[in-house]
């Protein structure tokens, strides 16, 4: 699937800065479902064109995923997904052009809010509603829309036309504004998403819809389709949009993390966790490590000092956290051996990802408690059944210890985003069943100052295959 952006006028040369991609280079990025390539077919003082080409692997999408398609076996492999602009393109935009989508530009910050003459082209857009729907979505936002309906097969004109269109959008606006519109509306046109939709998708819609979706004449249709016709979620999103409650989910998560750190500060728990996990990896002789849910890279910063570790990869769903991790690790300032040893990837832990396979060890430090209990099965399959590292280290809060934290109200969890906090018995029961199902042994260790009755503030499980 192909998405191009063309900038003209006095600010055209700023497109490369906004995209954080150099015009002289072809850059390739791994994705959970394939690869993305960014290149510039045109780069002059008057006009710059950047292209995002997503090379999707349809076999990787369904291999080992029960229920991955509602159609038959052939439908799983023979479909339009490798070519059509769909939710896969939106995910690629978020992962590869995340800084531009969020409106961040360190080198030229004045360009973020600058209106630029832009032309976006999308190849093979599934318009389930036709060109009429396409225009009704983009024209109220000020775009000049050109749409050409594609034949089912050029070799057989009698077959007629399909639902796919080549689309061109023209507008003078900040780049982040155009990317937000495309990010939200492409899955709406397709009326489908390739991944599970839950409350986190409401957060994305509210955040990326801020400033335009609440007043859009098709806002109900947009919310309904974006959230895969889940009425409760659509109502929640619209209520928040109309009330003006559009928070940056990354910024909110950062604030909650700071609150948790303040609660645990008296026992220096953050440092103790990192030391304990690093020691466990050393004891297991791990030379290649993937930190799943790496956040801002604190554990990676500790592990990179261990020269026995030859490869480090951090994975997180938050692009902002990865940006902070990159700064912490100084990846943009160092070349040579350090940059070769460390890599940061944007991705979810709930889906099988070939990039996560082949490591000696994987770590999940204070990660599982941020997931709904119903989704731990997906995490288990992606990490223990598919990636299958030799060692997996998991840490999570010990709920019994919470009464020791005087700043934490009774009955509350340490972090506002925690979906659960387990007692020692609950954690050991879960870990034991995961180990048994996937061919691992598991041992447990306390982290932090222990109470004779309540145990330690953090509990750690070390799985060995």
UniProtKB/TrEMBL annotation:
InterPro entries: 3'-RNA_MeTfrase_Hen1_bac, Hen1, Hen1_N, Hen1_N_sf, Methyltransf_12, SAM-dependent_MTases_sf. Its EC number is 2.1.1.386. It catalyses: small RNA 3'-end nucleotide + S-adenosyl-L-methionine = small RNA 3'-end 2'-O-methylnucleotide + S-adenosyl-L-homocysteine + H(+). Its cofactor is Mg(2+). Keywords: Magnesium, Metal-binding, Methyltransferase, RNA-binding, RNA-mediated gene silencing, S-adenosyl-L-methionine, Transferase. The keyword Cell division does not apply. Residues 1-241 form the Hen1 N-terminal domain. The keyword Metal-binding applies. Residues 290-389 form the Methyltransferase type domain. Transmembrane segments: none annotated. CDD domains: AdoMet_MTases. Pfam families: Hen1_L (PF12623), Methyltransf_12 (PF08242). It is an enzyme of class 2 (transferase). Belongs to the methyltransferase superfamily. HEN1 family. This is Small RNA 2'-O-methyltransferase. It comes from Polyangium mundeleinium.
């Amino acid at each position: 699937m192909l998405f191009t952006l063309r900038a003209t006028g006095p600010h055209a040369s700023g497109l490369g800065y906004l995209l954080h991609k150099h015009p002289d280079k072809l850059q390739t990025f791994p994705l959970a479902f394939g690869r993305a390539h960014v290149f510039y077919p045109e780069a002059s003082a008057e006009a710059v064109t950047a292209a995002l080409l997503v090379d999707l692997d349809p076999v990787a999408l369904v291999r080992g995923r029960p229920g991955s398609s509602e159609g038959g076996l052939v439908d799983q492999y023979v479909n339009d997904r490798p070519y059509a602009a769909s939710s896969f393109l939106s995910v690629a935009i978020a992962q590869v052009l995340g800084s531009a989508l969020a409106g961040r530009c360190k080198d030229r910050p004045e360009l973020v809010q600058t209106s630029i003459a832009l032309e976006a082209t999308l190849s093979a857009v599934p318009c389930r509603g036709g060109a009429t729907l396409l225009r009704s979505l983009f024209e109220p936002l000020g775009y000049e829309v050109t749409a050409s309906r594609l034949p089912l097969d050029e070799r057989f004109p009698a077959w007629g036309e399909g639902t796919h269109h080549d689309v061109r959008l023209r507008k003078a606006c900040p780049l982040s504004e155009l990317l937000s519109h495309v990010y939200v509306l492409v899955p709406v046109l397709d009326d489908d998403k390739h991944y599970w939709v839950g409350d986190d998708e409401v957060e994305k819609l509210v955040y990326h819809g801020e400033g335009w979706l609440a007043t859009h004449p098709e806002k109900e249709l947009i919310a309904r389709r974006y959230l895969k016709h889940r009425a409760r979620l659509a109502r929640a999103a619209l209520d928040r949009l109309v009330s003006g409650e559009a928070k940056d989910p990354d910024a909110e998560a950062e604030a909650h993390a700071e609150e948790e750190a303040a609660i645990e500060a008296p026992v220096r728990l953050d440092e103790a966790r990192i030391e304990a996990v690093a020691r466990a990896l050393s004891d297991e002789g791990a030379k290649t490590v993937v930190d799943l849910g790496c956040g801002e890279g604190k554990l990676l910063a500790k592990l990179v000092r261990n020269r026995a570790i030859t490869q480090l990869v951090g994975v997180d769903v938050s692009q902002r956290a990865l940006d902070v991790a990159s700064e912490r690790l100084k990846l943009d300032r160092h070349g040579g051996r350090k940059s070769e040893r460390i890599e940061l990837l944007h991705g979810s832990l709930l889906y099988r990802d070939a990039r996560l396979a082949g490591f000696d060890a994987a770590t999940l430090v204070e990660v599982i408690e941020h997931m709904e209990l119903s989704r731990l099965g997906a995490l288990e399959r992606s990490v223990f059944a598919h990636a299958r590292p030799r060692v997996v280290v998991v840490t999570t809060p010990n709920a019994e210890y919470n009464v020791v934290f005087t700043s934490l109200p009774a009955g509350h969890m340490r972090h506002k985003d925690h979906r659960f906090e387990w007692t020692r018995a609950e954690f050991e029961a879960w870990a034991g069943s995961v180990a048994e199902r996937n061919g691992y042994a598991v041992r447990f260790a306390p982290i932090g100052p222990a109470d004779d009755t309540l145990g330690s503030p953090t509990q750690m499980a070390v799985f060995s295959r």
